[in-house]
Task: inverse folding
């Protein structure tokens, strides 16, 4: 099979990025605010899904605690960007602690700090949890995610407790979201195909063999968990400024969000960063389209009442069917590259001949 040269690959990638930029410019100016928000959400979900793929797919450890890191990033960025007057109005039960009550900064530094705080939270969770394996690790991370949510819910002097945060500046735009997604893919892609990434993939295949080859399994898993937590925090920061209001309900920044992201990476293919993005785009679009089943519908004069939560039931059924009959997902462990496209196109042409 012919190999695509580095120069050709680079030129095609630059053309693709520039073309995508023009497509986003057209979308933001022509499709209206509603679809612009959906396209923005696709990128936010893509960041969450790729960060989750690094742990569950590439490293091969089953975690259920990513919603906790997303929540940490969301609250950190929101507290740093909220106007001081808005903080005084929101924290009317218990005043916000110093120095958060007197800090207001720009969106970019707040987002980076949110990622760092989420990475630190991932370190605190991963350091003890990674000493157990398999189902025990999944249960431990799920418990830690719930602990984070409960702490947020009861820390009135920091997070405003169950009242949540409102009036968050709507800084997240198409450009911020897709720009951060590009950064995430570059960093995680470089990480995946580095020597560390090869060690992670070896560990995912056989931990015992990897350890016998001299790989420090605990160190590599912890590093993967922390890097993943950083980008989960970035996704949380973007998500908070897309919603403009956040609270610690399970349906908002709790276990349901983990379930959503898990659907994305299973649909896209466990172990594929580009597959995670495709799964995120699929989920974001389908979630909006399936809202019709939750509203009253008319069929030939017959009115069918909407059923709240029916879209989530449909997603659950799709998730089960994929796990049973299509475990590979869209991409499996492959990455969507120019070489991948060329190989499949050549194979398709060869089959036709």
Result:
């Amino acid at each position: 099979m012919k190999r695509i040269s580095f120069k050709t690959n680079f030129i095609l990638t630059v053309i693709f990025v520039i073309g995508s930029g023009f497509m986003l410019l057209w979308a933001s100016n022509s499709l209206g605010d509603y679809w612009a928000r959906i396209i923005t959400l696709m990128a936010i979900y893509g960041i969450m899904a790729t960060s989750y793929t690094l742990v569950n797919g590439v490293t091969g450890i089953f975690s259920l605690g990513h919603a906790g890191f997303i929540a940490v990033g969301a609250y950190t960025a929101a507290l740093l960007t909220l106007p001081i007057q808005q903080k005084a109005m929101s924290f009317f039960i218990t005043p916000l602690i110093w120095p958060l009550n007197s800090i207001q900064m720009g969106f970019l530094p707040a987002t980076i700090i949110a990622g760092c705080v989420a990475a630190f939270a991932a370190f605190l969770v991963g350091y003890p949890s990674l000493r157990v394996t398999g189902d025990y690790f999944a249960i431990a991370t799920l418990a830690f995610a719930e602990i984070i949510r409960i702490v947020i819910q009861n820390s009135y002097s920091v997070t405003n407790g169950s009242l949540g945060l409102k009036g968050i500046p709507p800084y997240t735009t198409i450009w911020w979201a897709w720009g951060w997604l590009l950064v995430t893919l570059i960093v995680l892609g470089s990480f995946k195909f580095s020597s560390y990434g090869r060690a992670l993939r070896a560990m995912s295949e056989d931990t015992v063999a990897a350890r016998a080859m001299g790989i420090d399994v605990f160190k590599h898993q912890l590093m993967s968990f922390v890097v993943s937590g950083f980008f989960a925090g970035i996704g949380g920061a973007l998500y908070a400024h897309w919603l403009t209001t956040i609270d610690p309900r399970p349906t908002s920044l709790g276990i349901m969000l983990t379930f959503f992201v898990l659907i994305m990476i299973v649909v896209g293919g466990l172990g594929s960063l580009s597959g995670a993005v495709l799964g995120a785009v699929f989920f974001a679009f389908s979630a909006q389209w399936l809202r019709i089943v939750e509203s009253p519908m008319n069929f030939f004069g017959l009115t069918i009442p909407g059923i709240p939560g029916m879209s989530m039931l449909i997603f659950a059924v799709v998730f089960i069917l994929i796990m049973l009959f299509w475990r590979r997902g869209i991409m499996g462990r492959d990455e969507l590259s120019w070489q991948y496209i060329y190989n499949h196109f050549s194979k398709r042409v060869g089959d036709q001949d």
In short: The chain has a mean pLDDT of 86. The domain at 6-352 is CATH 1.10.3470 (ABC transporter involved in vitamin B12 uptake, BtuC). The beta strands are 165-166, 245-246, 297-299, 302-304.
